[in-house]
């Protein structure tokens, strides 16, 4: 487990000596893992118990209190000194206190308020750039993040609506509607800060694929409907596809992790419909484990979307679902192999955690020179793409 305030381990230089320094807040490091020599990670969990075992910390009560105080002091000291040029933080988002007592709701609200205040204090002044990552399931930005949107330089939004004004609906200035916002300079400035983001996946998850001709399933899907219309429709269609002779693997019960991984790797195609939000860990998991993902409609702006017929397939809600899936399943093995390779290449290039971190810093450096250090040309060495790579589209 990482400490509350830590400078990543020393080692070989990963870029120019004058490359930007980064301070990252959060529960899990993202940028820290990609740029360990340039990033200080502040673990803001401040948990009394071990977050993995939930067992209380060892030692006497005074010693645990002293340790907690030291971690808090370390965080405060790092923010006060401002030995960094870029602050990266997760958004506050909803309170998520449904079903809990009012005092718990109030306490969680205050924690979010304190976190937001700490981040804004760390990013005070014009020299330091603030980057906010929103990985919630919502198309709109939560009102609790209105202050972040106003103060930040860039706001990376998972589930960023194809029409970005829809994402801004809940955080526009008081009295402003979308029709007015399109002509308002302040609202246009907020829109210009938005960038697409994604959940991503770890690089180690990418596995060599099995040839399509050797896979034992044509189509794999497991998941509960949970009132989601597309999933309910799928559950009715799969038995009819099996009756046509297709090898459909659709277990009714939740699989173990090992069985789930094996089922994906043994399937030519895997259905990967969205849940509460469209962006889903399973999209990248399916491609990483060597299958071709089949998505429902994508109503979002993506960093670099899976292309229909190249890295995956999208189902048109206006078409007959059974007929559309039957046509997809008729894809020959050679094309399935090509699509599997293309999907894995896209995930490795754009959607691994390392690639997402480099994308965040690259977009930040593209805003212009950082005052304390050299112009972007020097800092860009941190995120320089390999020759021949397809660059993410910023839409």
Automatic annotation (TrEMBL):
<protein>
    <recommendedName>
        <fullName>RXYLT1 C-terminal domain-containing protein</fullName>
    </recommendedName>
</protein>
<dbReference type="InterPro" id="IPR057538">
    <property type="entry name" value="RXYLT1_C"/>
</dbReference>
<feature type="domain" description="RXYLT1 C-terminal">
    <location>
        <begin position="255"/>
        <end position="296"/>
    </location>
</feature>
<dbReference type="Pfam" id="PF24785">
    <property type="entry name" value="RXYLT1_C"/>
</dbReference>
């Amino acid at each position: 487990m990482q400490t509350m305030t830590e400078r990543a381990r020393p080692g070989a230089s990963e870029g120019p000596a004058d490359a930007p320094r980064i301070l990252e807040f959060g529960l899990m490091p993202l940028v820290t893992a990609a740029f360990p020599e340039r990033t200080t990670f502040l673990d803001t969990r401040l948990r009394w118990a071990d977050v993995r075992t939930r067992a209380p910390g060892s030692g006497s009560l005074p010693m645990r209190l002293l340790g907690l105080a030291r971690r808090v002091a370390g965080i405060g000291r790092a923010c006060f000194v401002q030995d960094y040029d870029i602050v990266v933080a997760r958004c506050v988002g909803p309170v998520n206190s449904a079903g809990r007592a009012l005092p718990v709701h109030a306490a969680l609200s205050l924690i979010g308020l304190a976190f937001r205040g700490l981040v804004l204090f760390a990013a005070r002044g014009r020299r330091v750039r603030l980057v906010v990552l929103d990985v919630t399931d919502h198309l709109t930005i939560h009102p609790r993040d209105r202050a972040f949107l106003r103060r930040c330089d860039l706001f990376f939004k998972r589930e960023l609506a194809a029409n970005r004004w829809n994402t801004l609906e809940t955080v526009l200035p008081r009295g402003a509607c979308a029709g007015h916002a399109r002509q308002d300079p302040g609202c246009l400035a907020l829109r210009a800060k938005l960038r697409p983001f994604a959940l991503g996946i770890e690089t180690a998850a990418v596995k060599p694929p099995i040839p399509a001709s050797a896979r034992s399933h044509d189509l794999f899907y497991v998941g509960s409907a949970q009132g989601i219309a597309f999933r309910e429709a799928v559950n009715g269609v799969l038995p009819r596809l099996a009756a046509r002779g297709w090898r459909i693997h659709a277990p009714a019960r939740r699989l173990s992790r090992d069985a789930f991984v094996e089922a994906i790797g043994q399937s030519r195609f895997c259905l990967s419909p969205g849940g509460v939000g469209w962006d889903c860990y399973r999209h990248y998991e399916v491609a990483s484990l060597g299958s071709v993902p089949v998505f429902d409609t994508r109503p979002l702006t993506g960093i670099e979307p899976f292309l229909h017929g190249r890295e995956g397939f999208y189902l048109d809600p206006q078409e007959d679902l059974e007929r559309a899936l039957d046509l997809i399943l008729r894809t020959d093995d050679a094309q399935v192999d090509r699509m599997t390779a293309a999907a894995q290449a896209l995930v490795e290039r754009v959607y691994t955690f390392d690639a997402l971190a480099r994308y965040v810093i690259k977009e930040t450096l593209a805003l212009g020179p950082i005052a304390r250090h050299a112009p972007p040309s020097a800092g860009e060495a941190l995120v320089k793409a390999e020759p021949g790579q397809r660059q993410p589209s910023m839409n």
